[in-house]
Structure formats: C-alpha cells, structure tokens
Amino acid sequence: MSDSGTRINKFLSEVGYCSRRQADALIDQGRVYVNRKPAKMGMKVSENDMIEVDGEKINQSKKKKIFIALNKPRGVVCTTNAGVEENNIIDFLNFPDRVFPIGRLDKSTTGLILLTNDGETANRILKTANNNEKEYLVKVNRPIPESILKKMSEGVPILGKVTRKCVVEKVKTNQFKIILTQGLNRQIRRMCDHFGYKVVSLQRIRIMNIKLDLPEGKYRLLNDQEVKRLKK
Predict the structure, then answer these.
(1) Same-fold call for 67-127+210-231 versus 133-207
(2) Tens-place pLDDT, residues 204-217
(3) Is 97 among the catalytic positions?
C-alpha cells in the first residue's frame, strides 16, 4: 500500500472492474482485499499491491474500452453479483469481456441500459451534477390530465426532497414521456404515486445521446461517434 498511490475505488474504476460508486459498495461489503487484508474506504494502492475482489485477482493492465446498449427485459436484475443473484444482467448479457451496468433499472422496468468497462466515464454519467438526461415512456392505470403532468414537471415532494423540474409530454390518455436529470430511488413510480396513479409499464427510451433502437433482450456495441458524444 502507498500513500502516494491511487485510491482503491478509482483504481477499480480505471482498470474497468466497476464504477467508483460500485467499488465503494464492494469495499463496504468486505469483498475487496489488498495484499490479503480487507480494503478500507479511501485507502491508496500502487501497481505493486495485490488487489482481489471476491477472491479474484484484478488484472492491473487497462483494457480496451467497451460500451454496450441493451434493451433490458422485465425481470432482469441490474447487479454485478453474477452467479448469486438470479436473473442478473451479467449472466443475461453473457458478454465475453467483463462489463458492468452504468446505473440501474428496477427489475420490473424495461428499456435502455448501458454497460461498460470504463469506470471513469460511468462515474461522469452517473454524477447527478452533470444533469445528464434520461427519457422514459410511462403508462399509468387510468387517464392522466395535462394539469397533473404540469404539476409533475414542476417538482414533486418524495423521499424528503422535491424533485428537479423536468420535461413531461402527454402521449396518450394514460401515457406520457418524462425526461429526468436525476435518479432518485423509484423516482417515476413515487412521482405518480404522489398524484394517486399507479405505473402499469415503465420503459427507458433514451440516455443522453443514445436512443433505444433494439428489440427487447438484444444488445449492440456503441459506435465511436456515440461514445465520443457520450464522453462529452
């Protein structure tokens, strides 16, 4: 271990194991070891240290950056805990290289999710302060008037705070699109609950410049131009 090295969460991010946020969770769960000893939050490591996660030695060589767009079906769980969590996204994708999801979608939510081995870009995308847009198509259990959608766009009190102002557009009598720049836990479902509506189906159709253009359950690699715009 080195005082002048790289923080352990950044190290795991840079070598493409996971995002910094996911690394912090792994450390907190006692699943990360440095030189056979449990890692501590904020500790620094160097290239001479042996890093292990769940008993697996982490290769310190940086890999080619991979970006994947997946149309997640209902029932798939967005976790990297493959082999333990049933119906997890890693086993479902079955990609030959190690990747991890950028953020998550609830088990019952479908649509676009990105996966990568680029922890630093994942960290920037997930950072709420960057105001990165995510667009959803929402269907509720009964007709929802424009007046409710307008109130929803102005901010809704959930989880002890008021949601950010957002763009909401009616599609059908009981269906609307919403563009969020934050990702509170079950945010859209809670926003609908606040006005007495239940979400029947929820699909993410866009993340920043990447639009959902795949059949359910299928994935594709992002092209160089898409990745370049994503990183901006």
Answers:
(1) yes
(2) 999 999 999 999 99
(3) no
